[in-house]
Amino acid sequence: MLHVRNIQSSYRRVPAIRDVSLSLNRGEIVAIVGGNGNGKSTTLRAVAGLNALDGGTIMLKGQDISAVPAHERVKRGLVLVPEGRRLFPRLTVEQNLMLGGFTTSDAAKREQTLQFAYDTFTVLGERRRQQAGTLSGGEQQMLAMCRGLMSQPDLLMLDEPSWGVAPKLVTRIFETIQLIRQRGITVLLVEQNVHRALEIADRGYVIQTGRVVMEGSGQDLLGNDEVRQAYLGM
Ligand SMILES: Nc1ncnc2c1ncn2[C@@H]1O[C@H](COP(=O)(O)OP(=O)(O)OP(=O)(O)O)[C@@H](O)[C@H]1O
């Protein structure tokens, strides 16, 4: 599904990612973990086409998309749900969802995904005519993920989906990620909640100062002493 080879990206000439390579097979959940400021968000933004590359290549479904503009990557099935959700708080729940759907011309698919959102999260259905800004943090995250699904992704990238979500809803967020995978969608996940992320991930990558320093199955990384000490406080 995705092959990222040796990508680099910077902010005003200051490198944020120096050497990141990763791959995702179709249908996998893959987690990127690492401390604050190590380049996880920048990696997702570079893959989405929002941050320019200084080097390296990105292949999506066998095609080189390194120079393809961000909006075209969405049409090709690569969708990012950004950190902090970036909803339109004054638009209604349904309007936010429909904005996710404008890249697809298939009305039947749009309707089906809308129904999935309302069936899975009854609160979104009940409050579809209310402003998105009135939802709780966790509900807004669910809305943001559903808005991403409305673009009919093959690969959905989630940046810190449990950020700002009340503990009782965090479990629901991770269950939803698994539901998304069951729909045949590949998931690339960046999370501060390292334990939860590696629990549901098939594989994971650890990023430190802009480089991939470790990779392995979710279970192997969870059992790794360095990972446990650095990120799990064990
Ligand atoms: N808009 C920006 N302008 C300048 N520097 C930035 C910008 N965004 C990120 N950086 C820098 O790039 C580096 C990588 O940041 P990035 O946000 O990718 O890390 P992260 O691992 O996702 O951390 P966090 O979880 O805190 O977002 C950091 O040194 C950060 O300060």
Automatic annotation (TrEMBL):
This is ABC transporter domain-containing protein. GO terms for molecular function: ATP binding; ATP hydrolysis activity; branched-chain amino acid transmembrane transporter activity. SMART domains: AAA. The keyword Transport applies. PANTHER family: HIGH-AFFINITY BRANCHED-CHAIN AMINO ACID TRANSPORT ATP-BINDING PROTEIN LIVF. Belongs to the ABC transporter superfamily. Residues 2-234 form the ABC transporter domain. Keywords: Amino-acid transport, ATP-binding, Nucleotide-binding, Transport. It comes from the Bacteria. InterPro entries: AAA+_ATPase, ABC_transporter-like_ATP-bd, ABC_transporter-like_CS, BCAA_Transport_ATP-bd_LivF, P-loop_NTPase.
